[in-house]
Amino acid sequence: MQGLRGRCHPLGVIRVSPTHVSLLGCIRLRFWRSIVATTSKPGADAIRPFSVAIPQGALDELVRRLAATRWPSRELVGDRSQGVQLATMQAVCRYWASGYDVGRVEARLNALPQFTSEIDGVEIHFLHVRSQHDDALPLIMTHGWPGSVMELLDSIGPLTDPTRYGGTAQDAFHAVLPSLPGYGFSAEPAEVGWDLGRTARAWAELMRRLGYTRFVAQGGDVGAGVTDAMGRQAPEGLVGIHTNLLVPALNDPAALPSGAEQERAAQAAIKTFQTSGNGYFVEQSTRPQTIGYALLDSPAALAAWMIDHDTDAYYKISRAFVDGQPSGNLTRDHVLDNITTYWLTGTGTSAARSYWEAYGPDAPAAQNPAPPPPVRVPVGFTSFPGEIWQTPRSWAEQAYPTLTYFHEAERGGHFAAWEEPELFAAELRAAFQPLRADRLAEPSR
Fold first, then answer.
1. How far apart are CA 30 and CA 16, in angstroms?
2. Which helix (H) or strand (E) holds 137?
3. How far apart, in whole angstroms, are the C-alpha atoms of residue 153 and residue 369?
4. Residue range 14-35: average pLDDT?
5. Rounded to whole angstroms, how far apart are CA atoms 271 and 88?
6. Torsion angle, alpha carbons of 67, 73, 74, 75, to 10
7. How, if at all, do strands 122-129 and 114-119 pair?
8. CB 207 within 8 A of CB 237
9. Structural domain contains residue 96
10. CA 14 to CA 412: how far, in whole Å?
11. In the sheet that 379-383 helps form, which strands lie side by side, from edge to edge?
């Protein structure tokens, strides 16, 4: 096949069915990527319209594998200290197999403008939603793990069309939402070296290709690491960043202020995370390939691995499935939209490898111990109460001397944009408001 980039990523007008598997051997059985137009502009900077087309056979296989799940015995404790509880997982898989509309991922993504572009050898999938307000501020938002662009979809409306959500036309953003390399409908890298800094450079290149000469960036979880790296690289056109996870705090928590009660509570939360809450982090940063076999073979294993991320999110998700009591926008359907994206794209392993690249002791990035340069652009930070640790202002100020906005939100957790999309959008409006003085000219596309 012509035009393959990265691994198992067909380019061109390709519609496949299960009978075509022998002809398209590199395409995974549960994953079908279809780009439904030719290149929109010539050369290496080509941006291609994209849509999702998942055959019924892949959806049927998902349901069949769920029905064939082999269940372990019940945990011996009354909480999640041994891992995801059996009652939670059985409720998740029961609804996934019989109550969930497995066609939601395709429908939700295809309702929005999607594109791909090859950047540094990897075909990157992204959503590009232009506001009706031409002078909107361009914004590139990066998801994390175990997230995907699905976790950001419900924030697009409040960000691009603020007048419908209590804002003004002056609050509008043009939204660019890329899938990280190896996640979702982006191709997976065929070589090592895709650390946070390389992804940050790819995002700057993507914004250049879109014609944006002045833009801001936002990220949480892994996306916070990418956004932090963008702030330190300060590429041409980047005028500010916003994050909701203080990534620098993990480098040396003991060096952060600890005199106030809130600071001591944050120190204790990080210690808890690093001693009993980061099993996924250790495995993915050291042996992602090992866990990857289970993630691609069993949808139940994939769901359990993803749900067991942090205490706050776990119990919120558990209540949604077991008790029928979702927290904000963290509903059963929205949770399964995200997990189903991982399953259908077969990216459990490649996504896990991103932790090895960013944090693994054997990765190329670990061989360069030099401290990173300081962030050189204005920084906004929002602390959400359900985050793994609540960041005190003093910590944000020490990590980011260019801090221009800090706020403690009333609700929300680690997946803030997912759980509270309107509140999240309001935080971005406030954080980036001072940077709207100079308006951007109309982009080239």
1. 12
2. strand 137-142
3. 36
4. 33
5. 26
6. -120
7. antiparallel
8. yes
9. yes
10. 41
11. 48-49, 114-119, 122-129, 173-178, 137-142, 215-219, 238-243, 379-383, 403-408
Nearest to 288 by CA among 223, 356, 362: 356
For residue 267, pLDDT over 90 is answered with yes
In the predicted model, what is the mean pLDDT of residues 368-391? 94
Number of domains in the chain: 1
Reply yes or no on whether the pLDDT at 79 is more than 60.
Answer: yes
Q: Which helix (H) or strand (E) holds 266?
A: helix 261-276
Handedness of CA 382, 386, 392, 398 (dihedral sign): negative
CATH of the domain at 320: 3.40.50.1820
Q: What is the pLDDT of residue 43?
A: 65
Distance CA 342, CA 306 (A): 10
Is residue 420 in a domain?
Answer: yes
Phi, psi of 178 (to 5 degrees): -85, 150
Domain presence at residue 321: yes
Residues 140, 359: Cα–Cα separation, whole Å:
23
What is the C-alpha to C-alpha distance for residues 305 and 81, in angstroms, rounded to an integer? 14
- Separation CA 149–CA 144 (nearest Å): 9
pLDDT at 371: 86
Q: What is the pLDDT of residue 27?
A: 35
Q: pLDDT band at residue 26, thresholds of 50, 70 and 90?
A: very low
Q: Is 253 among the domain residues?
A: yes
Backbone phi and psi for residue 354, each to the nearest 5 degrees, phi listed first? -60, -30
CA atoms of 104 and 22, how far apart (whole Å) = 28
Domain that holds residue 311: 38-445
Instruction: Give the Cβ contact number of residue 299 at 10 Å.
Output: 28
CA distance 32 to 10: 9
Place of tokens 């540094």: 120
Is residue 28 a contact partner of residue 8, using CB atoms and an 8 Å limit? yes
pLDDT, residue 404, reads 98
Q: Which residues are catalytic?
A: 221, 355, 414
